[in-house]
């Protein structure tokens, strides 16, 4: 029997995707650069479904029914190009190559265009949910042609997570759209993680709570509007005690956060598109700051305020205030991320349905959360929504939270607890709602030193002031 899909690259993500497909009744061809992994998969998991092991590229291609569908699950970058070049010459018109790795969407656009020339479909797809997700139901974000989705879509929808019976998988848009959306997912993931980490730091620094107590706070929050995978695992991590020392696990882990680069891409592309994704940017910078051990060692002695824990009514209120600040900051981070998707979609003509993106992030992925259903509803009601911040329920929630949000940020400033995520989110909120921004002064400065010109609030046209002359005469530029 021929296989309906093949997976090449059988490290844990590829292996789990293959097993997930087989468990759903699909016959899966298997291939890996070294045959050892292929053999091992069949030996250990062969009983889970129908696998067709292949020990050469030709054997793999021959094992597949047409149109052939090959999922590549290897490292992003050169290894992906190498595997594409290995298989493309063996394929026929109409066959589909799927890249399920974390590729940069610009690479995906390049590969898609090149393979289209050769009559092949190339589907760059985001897959989120880690190893467990890949096996039990990830969130899947495929790009590429609508034609390729017609054959591939049903298989992907089969293995995706389901929320209320709806698969967490939908065709995102042409060429790089899927990987773009996955990139922003990861950027939002960074922002969300940073905000949660700041909440922990605040509860500890301002209330003097122990990690295990803070775990309980997070558990409580997880029963409300913050209900999400990241809050849930945060409680688990905080409650964990290091076996070797008996200390809270979080106190024995080196405080230098690493990254594989998708957050950095999100920020770079945000700058290119001119979209202020300050929450994602601060989260990414916070990770890089944490890793600068030399810089941190050199500055450790710099003076700071006395860190006296809160007492009385302020202390009583504080955890609830942090919950509100976290919720409001999260809304800002997601609002910024969705605006980035909107901008990418416009720039590359992808026609991405933001409601559908929110819908497929409800389950399976790392940022899965109850409130993504509210985001889905907001975009379904108003697809061209300028920002989530003005959408009915979010607007009200953020406005209701603003007093607590301001109070938390000022407490952080007063006690010297760094909260770049909370602070930038609040600054974004205040800047957006401002009648006037000091950008007017920046324009004046630019005109002064560089004759860069400015517009006026009361007249059409572009102007320049002769700053060097006594008269400072203004003229149309
Ligand atoms: C996912 C994750 C996954 C990966 C991150 C980790 O959606 O399943 O985002 O893609 O674990 O890329 O990223 P960092 O190493 O950059 O934190």
UniProtKB/TrEMBL annotation:
Molecular function in Gene Ontology: NADP binding; phosphogluconate dehydrogenase (decarboxylating) activity
EC supergroup of this enzyme: oxidoreductase
The entry's keywords: Gluconate utilization, NADP, Oxidoreductase, Pentose shunt
EC number from the UniProt entry: 1.1.1.44
UniProt KW NADP keyword: yes
GO biological process terms on file: D-gluconate metabolic process; pentose-phosphate shunt
Known pathway: Carbohydrate degradation; pentose phosphate pathway; D-ribulose 5-phosphate from D-glucose 6-phosphate (oxidative stage): step 3/3
Keyword Magnesium: no
Reactions it catalyzes: 6-phospho-D-gluconate + NADP(+) = D-ribulose 5-phosphate + CO2 + NADPH
Family, as annotated: Belongs to the 6-phosphogluconate dehydrogenase family.
Subunit text: Homodimer.
Role noted for this protein: Catalyzes the oxidative decarboxylation of 6-phosphogluconate to ribulose 5-phosphate and CO(2), with concomitant reduction of NADP to NADPH.
Protein name: 6-phosphogluconate dehydrogenase, decarboxylating
Signal peptide from the UniProt entry: none
């Amino acid at each position: 029997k021929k296989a309906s899909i093949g997976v090449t690259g059988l490290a844990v993500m590829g292996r789990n995707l293959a097993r997930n497909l087989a468990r759903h009744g699909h016959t899966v061809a298997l291939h890996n650069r070294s045959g050892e992994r292929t053999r091992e998969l069949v030996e250990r998991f062969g009983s889970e479904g129908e696998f067709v092991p292949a020990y050469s590229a030709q054997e793999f291609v021959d094992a597949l029914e047409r149109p052939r569908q090959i999922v590549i699950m290897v490292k992003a970058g050169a290894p992906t190009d190498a595997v594409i070049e290995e298989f493309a010459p063996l394929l026929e018109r109409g066959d589909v190559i799927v890249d399920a790795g974390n590729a940069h969407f610009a690479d995906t656009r390049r590969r898609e265009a090149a393979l289209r020339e050769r009559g092949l479909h190339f589907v760059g797809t985001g897959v989120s949910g880690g190893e467990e997700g890949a096996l039990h139901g990830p969130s899947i974000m495929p790009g590429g042609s609508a034609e390729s989705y017609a054959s591939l879509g049903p298989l992907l929808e089969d293995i995706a997570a389901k929320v209320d019976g709806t698969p967490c998988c939908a065709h995102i848009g042409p060429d790089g759209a899927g990987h773009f959306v996955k990139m922003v997912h990861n950027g939002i993931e960074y922002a969300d993680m940073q905000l949660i980490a700041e909440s922990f730091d605040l509860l500890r620094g301002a209330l003097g709570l122990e990690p295990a107590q803070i775990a309980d706070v997070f558990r409580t929050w997880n029963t409300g509007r913050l209900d999400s995978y990241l809050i849930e695992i945060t409680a688990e991590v905080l409650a964990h005690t290091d076996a070797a020392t008996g200390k809270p696990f979080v106190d024995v882990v080196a405080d230098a956060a690493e990254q594989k680069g998708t957050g950095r891409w999100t920020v770079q592309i945000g700058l290119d598109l001119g979209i202020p994704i300050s929450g994602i940017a601060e989260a990414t910078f916070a990770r890089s700051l944490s890793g600068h051990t030399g810089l941190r060692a050199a500055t450790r002695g710099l003076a700071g305020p006395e860190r006296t824990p809160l007492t009385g009514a302020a202390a009583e209120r504080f955890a609830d205030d942090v919950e509100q600040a976290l919720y409001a900051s999260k809304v800002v981070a997601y609002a910024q991320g969705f605006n980035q998707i909107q901008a990418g979609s416009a720039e590359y003509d992808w026609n991405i349905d933001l409601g559908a993106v929110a819908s497929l992030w409800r389950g399976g992925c790392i940022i899965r959360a109850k409130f993504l259903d509210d985001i889905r509803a907001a975009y379904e009601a108003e697809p061209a929504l300028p920002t989530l911040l003005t959408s009915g329920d979010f607007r009200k929630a953020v406005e209701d939270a603003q007093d607590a949000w301001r109070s938390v940020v000022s407490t952080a400033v007063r006690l010297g607890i760094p909260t770049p995520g909370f602070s930038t989110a609040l600054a974004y909120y205040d800047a957006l709602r401002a009648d006037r921004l000091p950008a007017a002064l920046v324009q004046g400065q630019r005109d002064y030193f560089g004759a860069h010109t400015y517009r006026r609030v009361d007249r059409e046209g572009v102007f320049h002031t002769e700053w060097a002359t006594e008269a400072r005469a203004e003229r149309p530029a």
